[in-house]
Design a protein that fits this description.
This protein is mainly α. It is built from eight helices and no strands.
Length: 219
């Protein structure tokens, strides 16, 4: 392994890591929004929306992100819809992640006794107010382990962004290996940068879970 090569490649991987984090964060935020809306539609058993969200969840969870990206990047232009690679990456991550977030939120919502919803409504709160002030905070606490796992999973899934010409970490590693054949150095930096991105999230998620667990137990 060459230290000089590692030093030369470091700025390239740093820029790619920044792009990976930026697109991944945006996609995850949109996925959380989609997940909340879908889980709410199922929790409140809203006509039509409940069925549509169920179909979306099954479609999203049972197709790989790579296939979804190919459809967005190569399929939509055939229909006259051209998209930017970054837009495809974020949209694909949100589409895939929304279903996983929806299932995580749904499990949390179902763990909250529906008597609490009925009590909130009897006090004059609307469904939206009851969800935001009473139900969702408790569901979020229960769902936190699954949500953290989903965030880590989705960030790892950004490794397929290179398939639509996004210069993420994986694209940079493959490009440098193909150009200069410095495989060990490229893969080492790839692993290091993914660890730098994912390890703090894992540690922070564990701390938040522990704090919420202690708060829930009253200790």
């Amino acid at each position: 392994m060459s230290i000089a090569v590692l030093r030369d490649y470091l700025p390239l991987f740093a820029r790619s890591a920044l792009l990976t984090v930026r697109l991944g964060a945006l996609g995850i935020l949109l996925a959380v929004l989609v997940g909340v809306l879908c889980s709410a539609a199922q929790y409140f058993r809203l006509p039509v929306l409940q069925q549509l969200s169920a179909v979306y969840i099954e479609l999203s969870r049972n197709t790989p992100l790579l296939v979804q990206l190919f459809f967005l990047y190569y399929g939509l232009p055939k229909l006259g819809i051209r998209t930017d690679p970054a837009v495809c990456g974020v949209a694909g991550l949100a589409f895939l992640g929304g279903s996983y977030m929806a299932e995580a939120f749904r499990s949390g919502l179902e763990a909250v006794d529906r008597v609490q919803l009925e009590s909130a409504l009897s006090l004059g709160l609307t469904n939206a107010q009851a969800m935001g002030s009473v139900i969702l905070p408790q569901a979020l606490s229960i769902s936190m382990p699954a949500l953290v796992a989903n965030v880590i999973f989705l960030l790892k899934e950004t490794s397929v962004f290179s398939a639509v010409s996004l210069m993420d970490l994986m694209f940079t590693a493959k490009d440098l290996i193909g150009l200069h054949y410095n495989t060990v150095e490229s893969l080492t930096l790839l692993v290091v940068f993914y660890l730098l991105i994912l390890l703090p999230i894992s540690i922070l998620g564990s701390l938040v879970e522990r704090r919420l667990r202690y708060a829930g137990s009253g200790t």
